[in-house]
């Protein structure tokens, strides 16, 4: 078998077109949806993502600002900026690019963002709302993965799903979303004993460990759907995921590539969350 390659770029384009339509409607009603992205430090990969986010906003007609600060920015100064953006009516979504420098407490920073503007869905109150089945913002990456599964018409109800990686940003919300959709979910991690035993039983495997070639074809059930959330930069400078593409492709029924899979979907869902935040201000 050769896996279908799930085209995240094409699906993201479709979603961003829908965002453009909703943006135009909002603008007619006097609201220009606005996203603020804060970047602290000069990590080159972060700069690329932030630039991609800003470009996607511009293209969809959203107002976007990028605030870039040096590595030495104090936590107090960052919290003061967040406070200002919380109170800025032109800004509906706030994203603080992770990771932050060591001297800044990321948890405190996330909690400082107003939950109604937390388009990443990282705030504890948004995590709690997702866990209890009444989400306000679904974290962009797992939200994008659900859209990819939907577009592939993957049956989630009754399926066995394995999520490899248990981060607050991807693995944990991913598991909750799959579970809410009716899957039986196992959360594994890079230390799981006999990881292949778990993944070989899965109809759906989502990998988010940050370790290249962590999952190989022999660990995948024939016909399973494999979603690769990893982004690793090889010594050759090329991006690769956490799955060994060559071997998984020969066994899986569908596989998301890196690049061109989950990454573009993450950005599309960020725009969806921002537009939803803006639409909510109208409803009141
Ligand atoms: N508060 C916060 N929210 C985030 O959503 C967040 C974050 N911090 N920190 C970093 C990660 C990573 N992330 C990506 C988004 C898009 C691509 C993406 O578009 N990737 C392209 C390739 C881009 C390239 O060429 O480097 C692709 O996979 O095809 C990748 C990674 C969002 N993150």
UniProtKB/TrEMBL annotation:
Pathways per UniProt: One-carbon metabolism; tetrahydrofolate interconversion
Gene Ontology molecular function: methenyltetrahydrofolate cyclohydrolase activity; methylenetetrahydrofolate dehydrogenase (NADP+) activity
EC id: 1.5.1.5, 3.5.4.9
Superkingdom of the organism of origin: Bacteria
InterPro entries, per database record: Aminoacid_DH-like_N_sf, NAD(P)-bd_dom_sf, THF_DH/CycHdrlase, THF_DH/CycHdrlase_cat_dom, THF_DH/CycHdrlase_CS, THF_DH/CycHdrlase_NAD-bd_dom
Catalytic activity: (6R)-5,10-methylene-5,6,7,8-tetrahydrofolate + NADP(+) = (6R)-5,10-methenyltetrahydrofolate + NADPH; (6R)-5,10-methenyltetrahydrofolate + H2O = (6R)-10-formyltetrahydrofolate + H(+)
HAMAP family cross-referenced by the UniProt entry: THF_DHG_CYH
Gene Ontology cellular-component terms listed: cytosol
NCBIfam families: PRK10792.1 (NF008058), PRK14189.1 (NF010786)
Family indicated by similarity: Belongs to the tetrahydrofolate dehydrogenase/cyclohydrolase family.
Keywords, alphabetical: Amino-acid biosynthesis, Histidine biosynthesis, Hydrolase, Methionine biosynthesis, Multifunctional enzyme, NADP, One-carbon metabolism, Oxidoreductase, Purine biosynthesis
Gene: folD
Protein name: Bifunctional protein FolD
Any single biological process term in GO: purine nucleotide biosynthetic process
Gene3D superfamilies: Leucine Dehydrogenase, chain A, domain 1, NAD(P)-binding Rossmann-like Domain
Subunit structure: Homodimer.
Database matches in CDD domains: NAD_bind_m-THF_DH_Cyclohyd
Domain Tetrahydrofolate dehydrogenase/cyclohydrolase catalytic span(s) in chain numbering: 6-120
Tetrahydrofolate dehydrogenase/cyclohydrolase NAD(P)-binding domain segment(s): 139-280
Residues where NADP(+) binds: 165-167, 231
Keyword match Hydrolase: yes
């Amino acid at each position: 078998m050769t896996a279908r390659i799930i085209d995240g770029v094409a699906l993201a384009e479709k979603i961003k077109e829908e965002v453009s339509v909703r943006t135009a409607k909002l603008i007619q009603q006097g609201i220009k949806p606005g996203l603020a992205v804060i970047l602290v430090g000069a990590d080159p990969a972060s700069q690329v993502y932030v630039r991609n986010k800003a470009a996607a906003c511009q293209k969809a007609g959203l107002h976007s600002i990028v605030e870039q600060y040096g590595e030495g920015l104090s936590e107090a100064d960052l919290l003061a900026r967040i406070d200002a953006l919380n109170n800025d009516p032109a800004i509906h979504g706030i994203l603080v690019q992770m990771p932050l420098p060591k001297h800044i407490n990321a948890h405190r920073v996330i909690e400082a963002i107003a939950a109604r503007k937390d388009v990443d869905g990282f705030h504890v109150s948004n995590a709690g709302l997702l866990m209890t089945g009444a989400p306000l913002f679904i974290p962009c990456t797992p939200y994008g993965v659900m859209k990819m599964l939907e577009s592939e018409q993957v049956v989630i109800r009754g399926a066995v799903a394995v999520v490899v990686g248990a981060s607050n940003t991807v693995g944990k919300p991913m598991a909750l979303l799959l579970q809410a959709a009716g899957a039986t979910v196992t959360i594994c991690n890079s230390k799981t004993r006999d990881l292949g035993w778990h993944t070989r039983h899965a109809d759906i495997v989502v990998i988010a460990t940050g370790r290249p070639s962590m999952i190989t074809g022999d660990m995948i059930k024939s016909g399973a759907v494999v979603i690769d959330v990893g982004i690793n930069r090889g010594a050759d400078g090329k991006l690769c995921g956490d799955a060994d593409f060559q071997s998984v492709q020969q066994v899986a029924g569908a596989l998301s590539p890196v690049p061109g899979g989950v990454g573009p979907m993450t950005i599309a869902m960020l725009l969806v969350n921002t537009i939803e935040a803006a639409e909510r201000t109208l409803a009141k």
